[in-house]
Amino acid sequence: MSKFISLKTSLPGPKSQEIANKREKYVAKPMGSSLSPCYIAKGEGALITDVDGNQFIDLTGGWGCLAVGYSHKKVVTAVKDQIEKYLHTDFTAIPYKSFVELAKKLVELAPGSSPKTAAFFNSGSEAIENAVKIARAHTKRPAIIVFENAFHGRTLLTMTMTHKAMPYKYHFGPFASEIYRLPFPTPYHPTVKIEDFEKILINTVIPESVAAIVIEPIQGEGGFNVPVEGFLEYLRELTNKYGILLITDEIQSGMGRTGKFFAIENWNIEPDIICLAKSLAAGLPLSAVIAKKEITNSLPGGCIGGTYVGNPVACRAALEVIKIIEEENLLDRAVKIGKKLKERFLKMKDKYSLVGDVHGIGAMMAIELVKDRETKKPATEETAQIVQECVKNGVLVPNAGINKNLLRMLVSLEITDEQLDEALDVLEKAIAKFNEN
Ligand SMILES: Cc1ncc(COP(=O)(O)O)c(C=O)c1O
Q: Which residues contact 102 (CB under 8 A, 6 or more apart)?
């Protein structure tokens, strides 16, 4: 018996279909299709209602932007208050307090004892792009190391840093130079031994020409891959040895999703630069680059920025998001959600051979679907079918992975246990349907 899912029309319903017809005519095709065939009217917590009155449980969380849900009252109140006062100034024209307060808060929360500063941008890509600019300017070195399966964005530089060619790099070259890709070993795909990594680095690029290693502590689009034990600690030592900066891309894994405010806090490591976005401002466009002060102080004033960066409405939302995470103990909630997900997924692994692996940290949990547990051949088609089956039954679940054979949970941390159980029942039925055995 569904308590939260309520499907009143066939999907898409007539009102959604009408908008879809207009979309077909007016929206640029390269923007792609949507996971949901239905158009949203309202969202609350982890639930959405579409324009035809159908209600869904959403596990996509706006691709990880909605840790505090679709329309948290405190965020809405702060945003309303701000928009009635002023929408924009450009911080370099007329400064405002929320920009400074947010920088202070993020710097205080960031791991490690080194003094730090924060800079704000609009998107995740922009944060990464600026982190790289800062690293190159500080070290006066050109090269950047990234990893297999990485996703860092879609601007020219970040698209180059992103691994997957299709669709992200579709005839969009020539690409940016001095980007070098190395293996990202995980327990399920141990592509390199830690002790061999330095040799591979040296054979790929002169370490003394490397400005930064940019790593997602837990890969997002790549499939919620957690590196093998000791790898991140090893990278910290290696970067220290060669004077390379360590940049963590926490755009998907940060803001409490793993049960720690910063994903890198799951390891005892102080990165040189941390990038945040997505859930930072509850879905409003805002990203942050938090860097050691000695690094940012070595650059001249005015060399980074942008017209819209650190918008006052987004800064107010972000301050509220951080308060909500603290007041509602959402870090603990992420751990509890993660425990529930993991237990349920491991049971599915026992029952269905399609489930090859379960991995992640906290609420950032995924299942990897394989055609054969021996060869680990990606079950790409089955994953797509499961996603569609879930949509048909009122649950929106995102896939992931370079072969699109993972189901990842990006659910709002505001989801209730009952809602999560209902969503997982739908998900399990879909997996059972497409499991061969
Ligand atoms: C880890 C990671 N880095 C960077 C980005 C790019 O962020 P944006 O899409 O806001 O440019 C994303 C987006 O999904 C991401 O997951």
A: 118, 120, 288, 310, 315, 318, 319
Measured from the CB, is residue 61 less than 6 Å from ligand 1? no
List the one residue out of 395, 399, 350 whose CA is nearest residue 379.
Answer: 399
* 225 pLDDT above the threshold of 60: yes
**Atom number, ligand 1, closest to the C-alpha of residue 216:** 1
pLDDT in tens, 231-266: 999 999 999 999 999 999 999 999 999 999 999 999
Mean model confidence pLDDT for the chain: 98
Kindly list the structural domains of the chain, giving each domain's residue range(s) and its CATH number in brackets, ordered by start. Answer: 1-58 (no CATH), 74-327 (3.40.640.10), 329-378 (no CATH)
**Ligand 1 mean position, distance from CA 227 (Å):** 19
Q: How far apart are the C-alpha atoms of 80 and 274, rounded to whole Å?
A: 30
Is the CB of 125 within 6 Å of ligand 1? yes
pLDDT (0 to 100) of residue 437 = 53
Element (H, E) at 213: strand 210-215
pLDDT confidence tier of residue 1, bands split at 50, 70 and 90: confident
- Cα separation of 77 and 317, whole Å? 9
Q: Is 152 in the pocket of ligand 1 (CB under 6 A)?
A: yes
* 151 C-beta closer than 6 A to ligand 1: yes
Give 133-158 pLDDT, tens digit per residue: 999 999 999 999 999 999 999 999 99
pTM for the model stands at 0.98
- pLDDT tens sequence across 43-71: 999 999 999 999 999 999 999 999 999 99
Q: Report how far residue 153's alpha carbon sits from residue 168's, in angstroms, rounded to the nearest whole number.
A: 9
CA of 331 to the centre of ligand 1 (A): 21
C-beta 254 within 6 A of ligand 1: no
- 278 Cα to the center of ligand 1, angstroms: 8
Ligand 1 contact, 364 CB (< 6 A)? no
Cβ within 8 Å of residue 52, ≥6 positions away: 8, 9, 12, 13, 14, 15, 16, 38
pLDDT digits (tens, 9 = 90+) for 92-135: 999 999 999 999 999 999 999 999 999 999 999 999 999 999 99
Angstrom distance (rounded) from CA 349 to CA 122:
39
CA of 61 to the centre of ligand 1 (A): 14
Angle among Cα 411, 360, 344 to the nearest 5 degrees reads: 70
